[in-house]
Design a protein that fits this description.
Elements lengths: L1 E4 H23 L2 E5 L11 H9 L5 H13 L10 E3 L6 H9 L1 H5 L28 E5 L3 E5 L3 E5 L2 H16 L4 H14 L2
Parallel strand pairs: 2-3
Antiparallel strand pairs: 1-6, 2-4, 4-5, 5-6
Helix pairs in contact: 1-3, 2-3, 4-7
Length: about 190
């Protein structure tokens, strides 16, 4: 396991350098599994959304713009037919959809947010897998998992740990909210977060 402080990483390579390092990992991987709790995954972010997210990190406007352009350049990996990019098709799509709905807020410079309200009243905990994940993560093939915390990135490469995250990701995909239930849940978040 490697522990990499965000503060040290940004000092060493800057925000754009961090995006380039992620791009290198994405280029080497054949399958990328991305679970994001509160934000649209970096590979799927629009320019304005990425700018609003990266602006929260701090730094100069020039450094933010360089990082935005580096993040958008990463999207070239999505055109590589030999690669699979997976997000829970239904799972964190709720948070991602909420993030996209709030795109205008993000573009105005306000930090993207998700609501902290309980799930919709139709939520049935026996039907839906509710993991105790508090951090976003990206699994690159079955070789490494990059776990993002508030203060650092942890790189897990021990096979048992990597397998646990891949299994969790697959469970999230299988047991995610869909259709009407998902729309009701999103609507409840929008109502209670205002």
């Amino acid at each position: 396991m490697e522990y990499q402080s965000w503060q040290l990483l940004t000092r060493q390579s800057g925000l754009a350098g961090l995006q380039s390092a992620v791009h290198d990992r994405e280029q080497r991987a054949r399958t990328i599994r991305s679970f994001q709790l509160a934000l649209v995954p970096g590979l799927l972010q629009t320019e304005d959304y990425a700018r609003a997210v990266l602006k929260q990190v701090g730094g100069s406007q020039s450094a933010t713009e360089q990082a935005v352009h580096a993040r958008l350049a990463r999207q070239s990996v999505l055109n590589d037919s030999r690669k699979q990019f997976r997000v829970p098709d239904r799972g964190s799509r709720a948070a991602q959809s909420l993030g996209l709905m709030r795109h205008n807020e993000a573009a105005s410079g306000e930090a993207p947010r998700t609501g902290g309200s309980p799930p919709h009243q139709d939520w049935n905990p026996t039907c839906h897998y509710r993991p105790t994940l508090w951090n976003s993560f990206v699994a690159y093939d079955r070789r490494a998992v990059h776990l993002e915390t508030l203060t650092a990135e942890l790189v897990l490469n021990e096979p048992g740990s990597v397998s646990a995250y891949v299994r969790t990701f697959d469970r999230l995909v299988r047991n995610a909210l869909t259709g009407t239930t998902c729309r009701r849940f999103l609507a409840s978040l929008l109502k209670t977060d205002r």
